Amino acid sequence: AQKANASVDAGFDGELGIPADVHDGYREILEERILDDLHGWMSWSEAARRDGAPPIKVVGIDVNDLLRSLRALNLAKTMSRSAITNIPRLVRTQSKKVNDGFFLTRSPAALASAYFVHPSQAFAAMDKVREVQRASVGSRDFVWNLPGEFRFLRVQDSAVLQPVEAGLWFNCQMISFPDFAATDQAWKRDFKIVEDYWVKELGAKPHMGKLWGFGAKASGNIEPFSDAAACSIYSNAAKGAFSTYRRQVDPEDLFFSGLGVKLLSACE
Predict the structure, then answer these.
(1) What kind and span of H or E run contains 126?
(2) Which of 4, 26, 218, 238 could form a disulfide with 234 if both were Cys (CB 3.0 to 4.6 A apart)?
(3) 115 in helix, strand or coil?
(4) Would you tell me how many other CB atoms lie within 10 Å of the CB of residue 64?
(5) Is the pTM of this model over 0.85?
């Protein structure tokens, strides 16, 4: 809700009325007891701070049985439609309870990959998602089960390491539940098909907080965050500027680890 404040109508003063029991509404959410599979019982507040919105399981049955149900009941299409049609209900409920857009109190494990493309490529980007999703219908390996998302946004020049320059961009996103894939390679193959088109044909750059860089390992398996993709996201100038500053504040490389090393490395 806060992110959108600069985009609302000029005459909107930002206040639509606060529920009298808003503090109780927040407290009820924060104090709810959650069972974490790894850490046991804890409050919603503790769980959210640890891992984000606590997950809910989409399915608890054998994936092959589920895939047969998908073909018979068209469940994937139903879930895609529900993801959109339930938004007003979720917003309405949380608006009355806590008066903001804080409505993601439960989140099933979902796969998400998002990219920035020039607005002129918006239709082509989303049409590719549609093409690949429709091709999966009836598949024994993986059926897409959530709608694609998109948004237009204006990027500011506010960081040394940002994948795109300042200006107006179209952000396209492909999402799906992994529970409906026979194996992890099944959904990764489809994600790679869309990503390859976005990057190679449309010149897309990734949203760094989501899945990106799908590449084939020596084993033939497809995995995200490949070295070849990571080293190509930022320009050499941006890498150099950030590395200079990083060495000043972290001279012993205490925080220089993990994916950050790949992102700042030169491509081979």
Answers:
(1) helix 122-135
(2) 238
(3) strand
(4) 10
(5) no
